[in-house]
Specification:
The chain has 390 residues and is of the alpha/beta class. The chain has twelve helices and 13 strands. Helix 5 runs parallel beside helix 9. The longest helix has 14 residues.
Amino acid sequence: MATLELLRYRQAILNPSSPLQVYANPLSSKSFDFLTSLSITTTFPVPDLVQLSNIPNIAVLEIINLPRAIGYEIRTQNFAQGVGDRLIRAWYSAAVNGGAFRVLRILKMCNHEDLTANSMNFLNGFPALALYDVRGCNFGRDVESSAKRLGWRSAFSRNVLDLLDGWCKDEAFSANEDQTFKFPSQSAVPQPLWDGSKIRRIRRGEVSNFRALRAAVAVMNIPSLQSEHDGSKKGRQTKQLREEKGIGHNNAGNTKIKAPETWDFTTHTAFARVGELRGDLDLLKAGVPLGDQAVVGDELVNSVPMASLRLGPTPRVSSTSKALVFIRIRQPPQVSANAMDGHTLRSWDKSARNGTFKSPSQNLSQLKHRVPKVTRAKKRKLDDVLNSFL
């Protein structure tokens, strides 16, 4: 049986010395054999960053400006001048005129002084974008109304993944998404999955029932997994109920193994949560061969292999700092090169309020059951390419 490691490729290069395209080219797949998550925490020329639009399968992109030591002070410097509104606009142009960024769901731009609320005007040009993280950028607290007009919701949160995870576990929210959009009152606590966890697949038409059963198990206040092995009557009942409902362990039987949190855990898991809320219809529209839905325990995981590459050091994240993020679960209408006119914006705002966009459950019949060929040989080949840069 396949394990989760076949769907995950992870590499970090602390001190990249080659041009950005040298690292980006192997991450490109026109046939969407895999998706790409790219994290940049070091300096590259802005023209090279513009060319990231040439990666058709890029699904997660983050550019983080790390704090630097200046004399006796530690402060954030705008080490990559030009990383701001103009860069977003260049990517927007590539998206609406050249079909770039068709599967980009997460865009994270941290600590850039040149990035302002004006960049919001270009976001609807990215057809799959769901999460825009701009912590530490030059945004005021008065952007909520303008963001809402464009179909986005703003939030200050220490962990955006908690919000998405809470939505996915809240079947009531999912069922009423066409009528209301609200943040869950209580968020779940997502946990890393072990790479050795076994994967099973269910047909796309069964996903809705799976989520409903998972929600029912949660409502029944099922005790922790550990109680299933304590020999008690309640523990045996818990195990039996999970087996009957098809809700398994997060680590597929490996409950004694605690999975470490890797640097790509948050973005990788957030990407999967957005896919769950959308039914992966955004990927289907982009031409990604989805296949059946991958499941690990009681979690729906990303069914398409993802290669994650970090260029630069891993930043330290403060547990007390809150991030300014913009979230959009619904996809926008098709955006043309002249889409940022008043009529288009009013049409988007009206359709968002009226809930005229179809929910994933209304479109499940459109999903194709193509199974992507994931083999260990492909994984070794990609690993060899990435390891050659070390």
